[in-house]
Amino acid sequence: MSTLADTWITVCRLDDIEQEGAFRFDHGARTFAVYRAPDDSVWCTDGLCTHEAVHLADGLVMGYEVECPKHSGAFDYRGGEAIRLPACKDLNTYPAEIVGDEVRIRIG
Q1: What's the pTM?
Q2: In order of start, what are the domains of the chain with their CATH numbers?
């Protein structure tokens, strides 16, 4: 029997995310940000900044960091750690993978 916790959701094609870029994905009432790292790995976090609810996919992605477009708080998207004020609460992270040319996340 499959549960939500082990269900993978297709988000987009890998080519839809620029290298060192982010992609906004809305699912139900939730928003996620999916990142393509410099090494072409993919990562997923909550989509809204923990300081003020601004979409992180609109922010600047450099290396393994995303900067909030509103107040320049920053996070390491690999583990969700808040690394620059005013962001001080970490983001939730979710497993992400590439299957063929598709990006999938598990958000259970």
Answers
A1: 0.92
A2: 4-106 (2.102.10.10)
